[in-house]
Structure to design on (479 residues):
């Protein structure tokens, strides 16, 4: 268990009087890229919020880097990019990054802007950026201070294919240095890029395996087909 | 409490305002414009002197209430607050950062309005202009602190603006400006006694009429300052690390 960066056991979450996560359990190994995949509304954001400790849970437990999720000691160690970019529209990209860097006591603003390819937009107001650029600014905030765990909620939505490729290269480079990444997506074509996959459907874990393991189990080469296979056999 | 994150937050809020020069201009000029208008409505320096000091406290109170509630509501309803709550950021540090930024703005706002009233519009102050300034800044801070607090109960900017008539106008009606407080019936008198703006206006009237920094003024100031701190603490309490 100490090998895992994140473990969830019998996790339950109710939102707005409805059970959104039901009996969710998984373990995420350190130094890997785990894809959290599933259709819109299946509970991905809720699950990621539980991991970073801002989601009130109704049952079960989440342990992150050896401590309960939300523990004070974790606040320096987790980078989180929310689904809606968490950046101030009325600041420039650099001002925004410098603020969060001051809060974290981190000093690598230029480096993270280079990582997300926004260095030449550092002096632009966030409010004038495109949606994809805003998302990358928010991702840059998550990278500040080289956190041990990166929780990224749909970081590649709306990006052009070249940039998407660059970001996935960055994710794997970080994982190679020991960072653990959880990356959510509602499009299956990102699945093949992950070391491990967590398929979520209607608040339940459908599969927690490597891409190769899923292909072997379902007999499907295409991971989208594998997902459909699992949905049908669960029904 | 962490002074680094508090000051970083204050600087960030002021930088945000710097990118919005129209809002800053309105913040700095509107109270002065209103006081000038009032001066010509009365068209009489003595009548103006009787009302102006109290309004010097009331206008910044209202304006700061609005600005602070909308700004913090924006922080609450966008993802930035959720993000900050996952960082080493104390809730009180965040609120104090806002308080410092808006407090600096309040000093400028009230300073300009007081100077214009005293030197151009003929407001005669028997007591100390500095005491008057301190009280007016405290009033603005009170408005800001209440605005921060009530933004927790609004889920849209529309609602936040509606809190102004609800939280601010009753205080304005009962603070003794329209009708002396000791001539009100007991229910109104009692309500007026529990509203912090009443103490601010009492103190302002005492300064204008009286001589020095009396014990009564000190008591009024302590009540207002206490309410500012209470509202800030309540505001910090309404920020939740975990939400449903
Ligand atoms: N603030 C909220 N209050 C009540 N229900 C919510 C809230 N946010 C999300 N939900 C519900 O929780 C379910 C899962 O949402 P979410 O975790 O955002 O899914 P995903 O990220 O996979 O699209 C959805 O049915 C959604 O309607
Ligand atoms: Mg989502």
């Amino acid at each position: 268990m100490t090998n895992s960066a994140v473990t969830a056991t019998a996790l339950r979450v109710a939102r707005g009087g409805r059970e959104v996560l039901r009996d969710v359990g998984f373990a995420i190994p350190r130094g890997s890229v785990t894809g959290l995949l599933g259709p819109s509304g299946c509970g991905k954001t809720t699950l990621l919020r539980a991991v970073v400790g801002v989601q009130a849970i109704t049952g079960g437990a989440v342990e992150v880097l050896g401590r309960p999720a939300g523990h004070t000691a974790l606040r320096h160690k987790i980078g989180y990019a929310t689904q809606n970019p968490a950046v101030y529209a009325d600041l420039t990209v650099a001002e925004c990054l410098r603020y969060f860097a001051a809060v974290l006591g981190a000093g690598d603003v230029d480096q993270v802007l280079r990582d997300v390819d926004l260095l030449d937009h550092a002096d632009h107001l966030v409010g004038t950026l495109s949606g994809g650029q805003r998302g990358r600014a928010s991702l840059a905030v998550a990278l500040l201070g080289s956190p041990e765990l990166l929780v990224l909620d749909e970081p590649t939505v709306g990006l052009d294919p070249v940039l998407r490729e660059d970001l996935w290269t960055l994710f794997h480079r970080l994982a190679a240095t020991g960072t653990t990444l959880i990356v959510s997506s509602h499009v299956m074509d990102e699945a093949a890029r992950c070391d491990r996959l967590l398929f979520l459907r209607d608040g339940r874990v459908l599969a927690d395996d490597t891409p190769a393991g899923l292909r072997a189990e379902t007999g499907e080469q295409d991971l989208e087909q594998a997902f459909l296979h699992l949905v049908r056999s669960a029904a | 409490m962490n002074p680094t994150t508090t000051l970083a937050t204050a600087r960030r809020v002021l930088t945000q305002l710097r990118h919005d020069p129209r809002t800053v201009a309105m913040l700095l000029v509107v109270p002065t414009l209103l006081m000038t208008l009032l001066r010509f409505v009365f068209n009489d320096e003595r009548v103006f002197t009787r009302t102006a000091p109290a309004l010097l406290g009331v206008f910044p109170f209202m304006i700061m209430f609005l600005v602070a509630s909308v700004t913090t509501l924006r922080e609450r309803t966008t993802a930035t607050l959720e993000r900050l709550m996952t960082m080493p950021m104390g809730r009180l540090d965040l609120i104090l950062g806002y308080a410092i930024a808006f407090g600096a703005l309040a000093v400028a706002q009230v300073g300009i309005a007081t100077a214009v009233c005293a030197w151009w519009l003929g407001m005669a102050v028997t007591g100390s202009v500095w005491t008057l300034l301190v009280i007016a800044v405290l009033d603005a801070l009170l408005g800001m602190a209440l605005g921060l607090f009530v933004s927790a109960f609004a889920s849209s900017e529309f609602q936040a603006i509606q809190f102004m008539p609800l939280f601010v106008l009753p205080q304005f009606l009962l603070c003794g400006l329209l009708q002396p407080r000791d001539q009100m019936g007991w229910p109104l008198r009692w309500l007026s006694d529990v509203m912090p703006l009443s103490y601010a206006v009492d103190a302002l009237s005492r300064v204008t009429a009286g001589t020095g920094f009396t014990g009564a003024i000190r008591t009024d100031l302590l009540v207002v300052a206490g309410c500012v701190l209470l509202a800030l603490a309540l505001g910090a309490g309404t920020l939740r690390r975990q939400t449903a």
About this structure: Residues A 15-16, 20, 38, 40-46 surround adenosine-5'-diphosphate (ligand 1) (CB under 6 Å). Chain B has a mean pLDDT of 89. Chain B touches chain A through 25 residues (CB under 8 Å).
